[in-house]
Amino acid sequence: MPNLKYEMLIDYHLHNHFSPDSVADTAELLKMEHGFGVRHLCFTNHAETFDKKEEVAGIFKLKEATTRFNEIQKELAVMRGRFPDMDIRFGVELQYQPEYMDALAQFVKQTPFDFILGSVHIIDGVLISGGRHAKEAFKPMKEHTAYTHYFEDVLKLVEWGHFDAVAHFDICKKFGHLHYGPFKPEKYKTEILRVLKAMKAKGIGMELNAGSLHKNCHELFPHPDILKWCLNVGIENFTFGSDAHELDRAGRYLHEVLAIAKEVGITHVSTFKGRITTRFKI
Ligand SMILES: [Zn+2]
Ligand SMILES: [Zn+2]
Known about the structure:
Bound molecules: zinc ion
Order of helices and strands: HEHEHEHEEEHEHHEHEHEE
Strand content: 15-25%
């Protein structure tokens, strides 16, 4: 008899020391997640690396990524032995950059991922999800230009399609809100619905991301109104993610994510093995 309590909380967005932006120890992360009641999780390290001066937003090299993700698989095999009551999956977070999409398709084809997140972190060539330039990136841009360019790239990512769920769907608001005030999804409903319909057509799910629930914009990604539109459009797969890069974020706010999911009418969360979905009632 499966323990339903533990099947509700999943963390399908997590970075460890193999990610260029994290030094977190894998066993310590797993202990932390376990303490919060998480039994299903997936490590989704970045496929790309970053240059130290952050002059470019990301660099993808197929050979480097292949070697690094082989090492990740080896470590996860050891962790599965040490944490037998946890379902530990092998994933990746792919960043949309037009010049790398063919190489990323090749990477996805040759690597046995359980689950793949697709992300947009860049607006008009500038990394807006974090790093030195993220806050200033919005200064020279008007809200409408910044946000429509962002959602246009999310649409291109979805049309490319070699992944399972869109990560932090409206991360443009993370620092955008500092310049433009609170994000109002209604203003971009046309652009957003276009993306959601493309996701439905491709069978791509939506992530509920806790990364900025208690910092930056203090909101879930995506805004709950967007989750309601997902249900109206017929999107079926929803995942939860802490997006933790550090120990103290791992698994911490997933109970709140679960509460928001239930409130908007989401009835199931999805887990993935070999990119095949299993849904659990919440
Ligand atoms: Zn991301
Ligand atoms: Zn991430």
